Recover the amino acids of this structure.
């Protein structure tokens, strides 16, 4: 009887964990010390990609679309080269706080939704996944995505 109860408890816990991963979580993006910003964002992780979308522009369909595009790109590139960074964070903002529409730092990408829709994020995604990376390898990987 105890085995059955343990098994049921374990199954229920696994079910709850898997369900919670399919929903966006509201988080606080606090970079007040660096950039003077603090934003509420919706976050969801699938595989190596974590998408964070600013609350003021959040539409679940767009966030899911961005996550799918990036996950598909990573899958495509991974056929040719194993990921160096297995956790990539993407922050989709209403505007990027820099001169460019896309900024990358370490394994993080800061971009607008337009740059995702227009595939302008791809080079930065490869850089985030395979950083550090020389330009010849980057061009080769991008040609496969």
């Amino acid at each position: 009887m105890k085995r059955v109860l343990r098994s049921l408890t374990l199954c229920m816990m696994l079910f709850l964990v898997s369900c919670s991963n399919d929903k966006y979580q509201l988080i606080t993006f606090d970079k007040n010390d660096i950039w003077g910003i603090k934003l509420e964002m919706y976050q969801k992780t699938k595989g190596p990609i974590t998408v964070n979308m600013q609350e003021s522009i959040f539409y679940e369909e767009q966030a899911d679309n961005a996550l799918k595009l990036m996950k598909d790109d990573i899958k495509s590139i991974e056929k040719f080269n194993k990921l160096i960074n297995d956790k990539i964070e993407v922050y989709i903002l209403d505007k990027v706080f820099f001169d460019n529409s896309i900024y990358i730092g370490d394994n993080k990408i800061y971009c607008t939704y337009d740059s995702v829709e227009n595939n302008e994020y791809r080079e930065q995604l490869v850089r985030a996944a395979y950083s550090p990376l020389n330009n010849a390898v980057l061009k080769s990987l991008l040609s496969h995505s």
In short: The longest helix spans residues 2-20.
